[in-house]
């Protein structure tokens, strides 16, 4: 049987993308979730421009302004959302904190996806002992609680190298720890898709034409396995942000000098029942809304990119 180059192309039908787009346009909740998420991304990206105060300014922290209630309660128009216990404008630190949390979440998931996709492609395409070895490594990783692994690693690092060094490298360490503990989810998903794709004719055509295994995996098979990855990627960003917030709440995350949403919630929790509730509640609501819209987008993508829900 002869194959031509066009036999190698196995794209997702354009009618399916039309189905996805029409489903999105007709779903008001998905549109709202996307608008809110894009708003978060925009204000996080433009935080230095839209924040009322520069958090790097030495005058930003003023204890004389500590624990001022939001403007609709105190009447102080300088601080729309009030101030925290250190006298910092809460709106400014939330904008910068959202930027930091999104950066950690996205970078950590990029590490997860890169490792998981490469391992899943190799395991699914090559099979045999390599597949067994890589999947046993994934099973071992999944047998441990990801949060427990992160807590143990971060606690050991602080003990060995000191809190001062940890605070300097906190962002990089959090990204690596969160990223390296969640790769099996991507790997197992990609492997399952590759096992189905490599039996199709376009892969046989590529082999007959002498195309290398590396090119077959990354150029021909990978693009046809991205639908579930998009779903996982969206949900995992939300999970990574929650993980960072949980670690910061436990004192193992970002330092107070580099506020993330998690560290803001942790710092404000002590004032929750002392009258200054806004220090904890407003960052908490910001985090909850961000996680909610990302999960809504992930659920929508799962429903509309699932082949079982689509008929040509």
Describe this structure in words.
It comes from Marinomonas arctica. This is ABC transporter permease. It is a multi-pass membrane protein. Belongs to the binding-protein-dependent transport system permease family. The chain crosses the membrane at residues 29-51, 100-126, 147-166, 172-190, 225-250, 270-298. With 312 residues, the chain is an all-alpha fold. The chain has a domain at 105-312: MetI-like (MetI-like fold, Orthogonal Bundle), CATH 1.10.3720. 70% of the residues lie in helices and 0% in strands. It contains 13 helices and no strands. The chain has helices at residues 14-25, 28-45, 47-50, 71-74, 90-126, 128-142, 146-180, 183-197, 201-208, 213-221, 226-249, 261-269, 278-305. It is elongated, with a radius of gyration of 23 Å. It starts with 13 loop residues before the first helix and ends in a 7-residue tail after the last helix. The model is unreliable at 5-9 (pLDDT under 50).
């Amino acid at each position: 049987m002869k194959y031509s180059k066009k036999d190698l192309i196995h794209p997702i039908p354009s009618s399916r993308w039309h189905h996805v787009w029409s489903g999105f346009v007709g779903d008001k909740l998905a549109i709202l979730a996307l608008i809110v998420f894009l708003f978060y991304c925009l204000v996080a990206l433009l935080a230095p421009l839209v924040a009322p105060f520069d958090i790097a300014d030495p005058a930003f922290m003023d204890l004389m302004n500590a624990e001022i209630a939001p403007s609709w309660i105190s009447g102080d128009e300088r601080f729309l959302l009030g101030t925290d216990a250190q006298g910092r404008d809460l709106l400014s630190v939330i904008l910068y904190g959202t930027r930091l949390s999104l950066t950690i979440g996205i970078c950590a998931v990029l590490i997860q996806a890169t490792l998981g996709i490469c391992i899943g492609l190799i395991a699914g395409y090559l099979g045999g002992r390599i597949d067994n070895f890589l999947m046993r490594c994934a099973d071992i990783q999944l047998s441990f609680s990801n949060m427990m692994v992160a807590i143990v690693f971060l606690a050991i690092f602080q003990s060995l190298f000191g809190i001062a060094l940890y605070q300097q490298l906190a962002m990089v360490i959090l990204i690596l720890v969160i990223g390296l503990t969640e790769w099996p989810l991507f790997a197992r998903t990609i492997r399952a898709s590759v096992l189905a794709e490599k039996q199709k004719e376009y892969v046989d055509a590529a082999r007959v034409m002498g195309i290398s295994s590396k090119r077959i995996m990354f150029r021909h098979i990978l693009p046809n396995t991205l639908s579930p990855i998009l779903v996982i990627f969206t949900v995992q960003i939300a999970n990574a942000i929650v993980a960072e917030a949980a670690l910061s709440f436990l004192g193992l995350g970002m330092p107070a000098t580099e506020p993330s949403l998690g560290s803001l919630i942790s710092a404000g929790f002590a004032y929750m029942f002392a009258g200054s509730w806004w220090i904890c509640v407003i960052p908490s609501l910001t985090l909850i809304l961000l996680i909610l819209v990302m999960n809504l987008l992930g659920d929508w993508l799962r429903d509309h990119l699932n082949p079982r829900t689509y008929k040509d």
